Amino acid sequence: MHRRRFLQQTGLFTASSIAAIAPHGWVAKSGVAQMANPKRLIVVFLRGAVDGLNVVVPYRETAYYEDRPRIAIPQPGQARGALDLDGQFGLHPALESLMPLWKQGKLAFVNSCGSPDATRSHFDAQDYMESGTPGTKSTQDGWMNRLLGVISGRNPIQAVNIGATTPRILVGRMPVATLASGRGATKQLPIDRPPVAAAFDKLYNRQDQLGQAYREGREARQALMGDLNAEMDMANNGAALPTVFVNDARRLARVMVRDRRVELGFLAVGGWDTHVNQGGSRGPLANRLQALGRGLAALQQELGSTFADTTILVMSEFGRTVRENGNGGTDHGHGNVLWVIGGNVKGGKVYGNWRGLATDQLYQGRDLPVTTDFRDVVVSVLERQMKLDAAKLTQVFPGYTPGQKIAVV
Amino acid sequence: MGSYEQAAIRPHAMGRFRDLLEATARHPAMLFYLDNWQNTAPNSPGARGRFQGLNENYARELMELHTLGVDGGYTQQDVIALAKILTGWGFRRVGQQAETTNGFYFDVKRHDFSDKVFLGRTIKGRGIEEVEQALDILSKHPSTAHHVSYKLAQYFVADQPPKSLVDRLTQRFLATDGNIRMVLDTLFRSPEFWDSKSYNAKFKTPYQYVVSAIRATGMEVNNPRTIQTTLQQLGMPLYGCQPPNGYKNTQDAWLNPDGMTRRLSFATALAKEMGNGEWGMENGGHGDAETWRRGETSIFNLQSSIFQSSPPPQ
């Protein structure tokens, strides 16, 4: 109701203004999008390079236990051991909250996955994974923004980012809505105050590009704040949730459920750069994984029936060394594990070309190789779930020909 | 980065383009950022450890971004030739004596002394002077004159600058041996610059918007960090551009719904702070009703500062 009233107040629904903004097309098209069930994609980026070998544990490899005397996760069945996945790999016990998804076949992993670029710089590797053009620094926009450009329609909250700054992956010419992370999410901006908003409505009431951007921004803000007010009411009744990520994940899910126009979501979680004392089944990494697992489980629960049309990708810029270092941690590596969660996922399976941990199978004798380009996984989701054709896929990942089909959805 | 702007860019911004190019080529920030400090002739006496072979990054960007432009008429062979010419250009590391106070260091032991063919010209292998010869060729090249002129016209006149103007600036650039002051003189006297279509034609970048708004208020900035935070939220952190092309100055890069919401929130916070006479104390906080009433009034007093684009005609 709020949205309708707002649109009427700002004159967006008068005949003349529909004509004026028709070339942009989103008002008309978003009406159509309401008819079909929109397909949703959420990317969770683990900044800092998570230690994938302690997420999906290759517990049959003796090299794993030899190389990681202090931080290895024990085999399934042992005290604080890994949770068996498929007889070859096991899940870190702190990720227990994801086991129901695994058993329902809604969770899959792709091993030895990542960006083909060899850089071990966090900055460059994140940049490449977000621009979607590994090795090319001059790409201005991110692949999720280019994706926005090729999926149908245009609306101001088609992509929602949780965080202070629009991340590289969403930078580009298409509009992206932003919601602050953690407690900041419910903080009002000056522009949320009715007298201030009314003043700016007057100032930007023209049918030019400025006015258009202003109204889209206001509408996005209005839609997102509507959800948050509802959440504040709920929070007053219930207990506080344990971590920022769990809260952010729930909030994103709620926004997506409530508003069908939100098709893409992005969340970043930091703190994975475990060079020192990362711990094994317990310890700093275990604590982070536990919060992450609970957040992802919360995301799935909160999405409800929308989960059936949603795919969640969890990725990180590169993996970490097979061998633990002198400080009970791991250093920057290469290949990693990519997580895929969703209603259409052919889960309960570890995908990817696994070559074992023998030194001669490792990249530069120390890291997991990248045997699956991360774009192969993204492309299969876009192709199979979002029904993008080859031409559109080329726009999302310019200059890239998928190397192999990963039939993960 | 501060040193790069102060020592390499600003002293030459109104001078000869050739001097500007030289200053950037010798600055450690550039040599580090575009990896040339590792650029090494394979099998040279100094090739060891991480200094094993050619690195083309700076050579390519020097032509694509800084001089000729992407369609400026160079080939992959020219990129390799220029990379060889640039071998050994880096900065002082432990145990080395710097050539200059800024830390620039030419490591002769890692230089490729072969003769090179660069943009159709032969450059004799003789050491550090090879780069001077290459920079001479690049800065006198018509493609460079056009590329730099286009950028100036785009910055000062319109996102799609008129061809007539770009052509005139290119001629001026070539005739004055790349004298930037003279090129700008032509630009500011041009009919295209004074054309009424050029009024309000440029949309401010976040940096221009934030700085001009604060300047317009005449307020003291007590905590510059709040400005940096605002710029970050607007997607233009100071010295934080990720790709080597630099931030765009065109409207398509900056006019979007989220950016508008953030700009107006910033403007409102700024207007509210005007009563305090300084900014950075309680940016974004919630004042009482009286503060808000004043803030609301200030929005309109502040119209001149929150214009999103170049000023309208008087």
List the helices and strands and how they pair.
The complex is a heterodimer of chains A (409) and B (314).
Chain A: H1 2-9, H2 15-21, H3 26-33, E1 40-46, E2 56-57, H4 62-67, E3 83-84, E4 90-91, H5 99-103, E5 107-114, H6 122-131, H7 143-150, E6 159-162, E7 177-179, H8 194-203, H9 209-237, H10 244-258, E8 264-269, H11 284-303, E9 310-316, E10 336-342, E11 349-351, E12 372-373, H12 374-384, H13 390-396
Parallel strand pairs in A: 1-8, 1-9, 5-11, 5-12, 6-7, 6-8
Antiparallel strand pairs in A: 2-4, 3-4, 5-10, 9-10
Chain B: H1 2-9, H2 17-25, H3 28-33, H4 57-66, H5 76-85, E1 89-91, E2 104-106, E3 116-118, E4 121-123, H6 129-140, H7 142-156, H8 163-175, H9 180-188, H10 191-194, H11 206-217, E5 220-221, H12 224-233, H13 251-254, H14 257-273, E6 278-279, H15 289-301
Parallel strand pairs in B: 5-6
Antiparallel strand pairs in B: 1-2, 3-4
What attributes does this structure have?
heterodimer; A: 409 residues; alpha/beta; Alkaline Phosphatase, subunit A; nine-stranded mixed β-sheet; three-stranded antiparallel β-sheet; globular; disordered N terminus; B: 314 residues; mainly alpha; 3 domains; two-stranded antiparallel ribbon; two-stranded antiparallel sheet; 6 strands; 5% strand
Could you walk me through the main structural features you see in this protein, from its secondary elements to its overall organization?
The complex is a heterodimer of chains A (409) and B (314). Chain A contains 13 helices and twelve strands. Chain A has helices at 2-9, 15-21, 26-33, 62-67, 99-103, 122-131, 143-150, 194-203, 209-237, 244-258, 284-303, 374-384, 390-396, and strands at residues 40-46, 56-57, 83-84, 90-91, 107-114, 159-162, 177-179, 264-269, 310-316, 336-342, 349-351, 372-373. The longest helix of chain A is centred in the middle third of the chain and has 29 residues, at 209-237. In chain A, the strands form two sheets. In chain A, strands 1, 5, 6, 7, 8, 9, 10, 11 and 12 form a nine-stranded mixed beta sheet that branches. The radius of gyration of chain A is 22 Å and the shape is globular. In chain A, 35% of the residues lie in helices and 13% in strands. Chain A has a single domain, classed as 3-Layer(aba) Sandwich (Alkaline Phosphatase, subunit A), CATH 3.40.720. Chain A has 409 residues and is of the alpha/beta class. The model of chain A is unreliable at 1-34 and 232-242 (pLDDT under 50). Chain B is mainly alpha-helical. Chain B has three domains: 2-140, no CATH class; 142-198; 206-301, no CATH class. Chain B is 48% helix and 5% strand. Chain B has 15 helices and six strands. In chain B, the strands form three sheets. A two-stranded antiparallel sheet of chain B has the order 1-2. Chain B has a two-stranded antiparallel sheet with strand order 3-4. Chain B is globular, with a radius of gyration of 23 Å. Residues 281-288 and 299-306 of chain B have low confidence and may be disordered. At the A-B interface, helix 8 and helix 9 of A face helix 13, helix 14 and helix 15 of B.
